[in-house]
Write a structure and sequence with these properties.
With 158 residues, the protein is mostly helical. Helix content is 75%, strand content 0%. The chain is globular. Keywords: Bacterial flagellum biogenesis, Cell projection, Chaperone, Cilium, Cytoplasm, Flagellum.
Amino acid sequence: MYARNSAAGTGASAYAAVGLQSAAMSASPHQLITMLFDGTKTAITMARHHMANGEIAAKGNAISKAINIIDNGLKASIDAEAGGAAGAALAANVSALYDYIKQRLMYANLRNDPALLDEADRLLDNISSAWREIDPHKPSYAPDASDAPAATRLSIGA
């Protein structure tokens, strides 16, 4: 019924890009890394879609985008000097894991294997969920007095 013209698609893309740029400019460093995880997950999801539909070039572009985000965003943001020796060891392990995920993505592209996309996605989900758990702006649970057992609340002055 409605024909999608390229001008409308371009306008919507431009609008989305401005929204993303605005979000990135106002985000904390922690939120920026979260956005990189989200972008990588979206690229892998798109690669899976293109793979299922036999769209080879689009699949390759989506996988390349995911690899680029991992390499130039997530991996580049690792600070090996933070946390002393333990932090350096953790940074090396996370860096090696990112390399492994990139390898899985490259093999997924070469072999047209959605199981390898799934593996990369699961590994990124694990890192992403751990990253989200350490968000310094995430409200932590602090029990209030009403959550304490009645005996504890009444023992003051008894």
